[in-house]
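Quick one:
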Amino acid sequence: MEYISEKKQELGVDQYYYGHGKVLLSSEYFVLDGAKALALPTSKGQSLTVKYSKSFNPTLTWKSYDNEGNIWYESQFEFWRFECLKKNPTAKDKYLQKILKEARNLNSHFLRDDVDVLVETHLEFPLDWGLGSSSTLIYNIAQWAYVSPFELLFKTSLGSGYDIACSQSEGPIVFERESTGPRWYTVDFDPEFKESIYFLPLGRKQSSNNAIEYYKSRSTQYNMIASSLTKITDDFLICDELRDFENLILEHEGIISSKLDMPKVKELYFGDYWGQIKSLGAWGGDLALVTSNRSKQETIEYFKTKGRETLLTYDDLILNTKQPSLFAGDPTANVHEFSL
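Output:
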């Protein structure tokens, strides 16, 4: 097939977009109510490529590939209302249609040319790791459509926006959802004891929107809780010993478990484990953080006895391009904001 650019000027030119995945280390749920959160972009993300070809009946063809190169989703849409061309559209079709329609609402010129469009997305992580297959998709579509990724997120999901901030960041960030909109800044978070930190895929993919709806259904006055979690986030940033880090995890897990009436992941599955285990993001699935003061091999062997074959090191997963310290020089120099 002969491909042309969106401007119909160059043959064989593809558009390419990329977003990093994310890990939310602190203030899950309560980040929605102003708690300061520590979030870690991952070295694995998702790409989106776009190819255009001449057409008199424009069609959008969509193919999504998993981390092993297998197609896990594909569909076709017409351009004018982004109606799915399948006889029986699935929930995934309707979700993508919603994102595309909102992108068009934000930019009326999006996908208006007489061209066929082939979009291919490629994940670098397994879907059930919960690293942001949806948030990186929204971020990439927003780049393609020349619209704000935060506006697109807030029109299509219930999230705080920390995952969108991670998609475009090159290292750890502190994120806050203020009344005026998201605010975040890069931080130098690279624990000296990171060899004792692991990430454990739990294989129980959670719906972020469902988790947020549960949280909101229980929400009353969370200001004091948000303040407590903000303090823990600040303490994570200055923590220099594994023991102190584990104590902060224990305190954080206790707050979330108590206020949302949910069991801790360690109590559910790993009650005899010697280190600490912290849920990341929506509780009950996706990914957990694990600490260990024993050897890597002994730690791996423990989780194998529990049927867990994958245990990732900190450096396996976390993107950590050296960031300027917030406390060095002008503290506002690396602050980013988006106003609602």
